[in-house]
Structures are given as C-alpha cells and as structure tokens.
Design goal:
single chain, 291 residues, alpha/beta, Rossmann fold, six-stranded parallel β-sheet, three-stranded parallel β-sheet, globular, binds guanine
Length: 291
C-alpha cells in the first residue's frame, strides 16, 4: 500500500504558483486576489476559510476575508457579493458553505459572477464542465484529479465508484472521471443513499471515491484487493484527549482498508490540501484571464 500524500502534492503545486506570482510581481503585473465570504462562525468553516487565506499568503496572492453575522439577511449577503463582482481588483470570489438555513445556497451561488466563480459552483461553469470546455472546476474534484495526475495513477478503462452525489464533490467527480482526459476515461458508477447494496458496487471498483460524509462508512469488506481509495470525508469527532477537543475522521476506515489498497489518501493530509491547491490554481487562472 502506498499513500497518496496530498500535503506533498499540494506543496508542489503551491511552489509552482509562488514562482509564477513572483514573476508577475517582478513584471509589475496584477497579483491574483481571492475574496472569501464567511457567514457566521461554524468551527469547521472557520478552519477551512483560514486555511484558504493562509494558502493565499503562502503563494503570494492577495486575499480579503469578509466576515458576516450569522443573522445577516439574504439580500445583504447578495449585496456583498455584487460589490465583489464589480470590484476590478478581485479575481476570485467564494462563499463558504454551508450557509445558515434562512439563506438559499442557490440564490447565493447564482449571484456570483461566473468569471470570478473560482469554486466552479455557478450553473454556467457547471455546464461548461459537463461539456468538457475550459472553466473553473470545483476545487475538491479538481484537487483529486491533480492528485491522481501527480502520482501517475492509471485511470483509463478503470471502474470508478463514487459514493455520494453532492453538487460540490460527487456529481462533478463522476463527470471528470468519465471525461475523455488523462486522468479520466473511467467507467463510473455513482452510489448514493438510495443505492441498494453499495457494498456490491464498491467491491467491483478499481477506484473508490468516498464522499458521503459518514465517518468510516467504507470498510475492508467493501474494497477489492489493489483498489485505489480516495477519502473525501472529514468529520469532526469528539475526542477529549485532543487539545482541540476533536479528531478528524474520513469516510473510510483507514486502518482496515489501507492494507488492501494499492494507493489510499490519509485524513487529514489527503484530499483537504489538494482542495486548497486547486482553489489557488483556479484563482490564478481567473487573474490571468482578466489581465
Ligand atoms: N464547503 C465545503 N467545501 C466547500 C468548497 O469547496 N467551497 C466552498 N465555498 N464551501 C465549501
């Protein structure tokens, strides 16, 4: 079994970006600028947005963090997005999800200028992705494709089983893995909460992408010998022995599954850092397209 080290692969991507940004600065050109909106103070969202801002600093991007109160009205949030849409200095906008219940994700995503939608969630960008046209690909599936590419994982002709059908991960992941690209060219099965006998599908998989948000859902009896296992899950579980009070659990029971795999991602240190590296790449691309 070998580890798909997302921390290492992400660092390689960030190192390249850092050089590109230094070059832009040396030429007196515009530096990429990411604006992140965080509504409320969900602990996990705070951590993710913090990591995104930190990554911007690392590669030399500008970043702006817009913090808004949990009780902000949807209209006020939409106003904030419109301000960023029209700010010529801002290249990328992301609104950290989940949002409070009184705010519609759909309205918010639709309000972001598709040319600044570095999360790739706007229906216009999802449409481009579906057609295999250049666009902003959602950061987590994009990061997973970059990880497969980094480790030269053979995907053509393989059977990939994606567990989960979210707009953020499962659906775009199934599109990318089945695209006529490298990595890609997989035969893809999407399993979800209403799938009968998920185990039978997983056992046929050469590649499993677990993205359902249920800690340790994928167990050793569900995995074929030699499979590649990508774990997107990252759930906080209470653990009084930890300083933070919690530990992170993936959707895969790592200790029992790992011995059966050819390659597997750890949690943390697998998909998470790749998501951030992909977001940085999208932001750089947005800046290049505008300038
Ligand atoms: N919440 C969980 N993943 C993501 C992501 O990739 N982007 C945003 N904006 N919110 C998220």
């Amino acid at each position: 079994m070998q580890i798909l080290d997302g921390k290492k692969a992400a660092q390689a991507i960030k190192d390249e970006l850092k050089i590109d940004v230094a070059q832009l600065a040396a030429e007196g050109k515009k530096i990429p600028h990411l604006a992140a909106i965080l509504v409320g103070n969900n602990g996990a969202s705070e951590t993710y947005v913090g990591a995104k801002v930190k990554a911007c600093e690392e590669v030399g991007f500008r970043s702006t963090l817009v913090r808004l109160d949990e009780n902000i009205s949807e209209n006020k949030l939409l106003d904030e997005i419109r301000l960023l849409n029209t700010d010529p200095d801002v290249d990328g906008i992301l609104v950290q999800l989940p949002l409070p219940k009184h705010i519609s994700d759909e309205e918010v995503i639709n309000a972001i200028d598709p040319d600044k939608d570095v999360d790739g969630f706007h229906p216009v960008n999802v449409g481009y992705m579906l057609q295999g046209l250049p666009t902003f690909v959602p950061a987590t599936p994009h990061g997973i494709m970059l990880l497969l590419q980094h480790y030269k994982i053979e995907t053509a002709g393989k059977h990939a089983v994606v567990v989960g059908r979210s707009n953020i991960v499962g659906r775009p992941m199934s599109v990318l893995l089945s695209s006529n690209t490298n990595p890609g060219n997989c035969t893809v099965t999407v399993c979800h909460s209403k799938t009968n006998n998920i185990k039978e599908f997983c056992l046929q998989a050469d590649i499993i992408v677990a993205a359902l948000g249920k800690p340790e859902f994928v167990t050793a009896d569900m995995v074929k010998e030699g499979a590649v296992v990508i774990d997107v899950g990252i759930t906080r579980m209470e653990d009084p022995t930890k300083k933070s009070g919690f530990k992170l659990k993936g959707d895969v029971e790592f200790d029992t599954v790992a011995p059966k795999c050819s390659w597997i991602t750890p949690v943390p240190g697998g998909v998470g850092p790749m998501t951030i590296a992909a977001l940085m790449k999208n932001t750089y691309k947005s800046c290049m397209q505008k300038n």
